[in-house]
Structure formats: C-alpha cells, structure tokens
Here is the input.
Amino acid sequence: MFEMIIDENACRGCKLCMDVCPTNCFSFNEETRKSAVAHLGNCIACMSCDYLCPSGAISHRNHHVVKNFYRNIHFSQRLEKFL
Here is the structure.
C-alpha cells in the first residue's frame, strides 16, 4: 500500500509542501508547527512535495516510479518544438 512519511524531526514547518501539493494532501499542526499528511487518498504521487522539501523530510514508499521528464531541462528543450 502507498505510504507518505514526514520525518517530524526533519520538518521545518515551512509549508512548502502545502503550497506545491495539487491535491491538498497536507495539513499544518499549529501546536507542533509541523506539516502532517491529512488526506493520503488524495495523493497522485506527483512527488512534488518530496522534490521541493528543503529538509528532505518527506518520503514515499510503495509507489510506481515514473521518470519526471518535465524536470529534465535537456528533455524539455527537445520536446519544446512539439508543444
């Protein structure tokens, strides 16, 4: 089963994961000042939160890995003529 883990010791409470998540999977705990996974069922495994987290606090397990071509500048430049 798909899992998303936030390392509470590493989380800085910057809320970047909340800003980047297209499906609003996260909530913010005002008491601990940390992000938390609130709606795992909404996650589309785009991995944007994992990629963007400055402290590396977010990780995913048991997901199908698909290469993110849009993050590869050389691939994007070659694809540009088709878009």
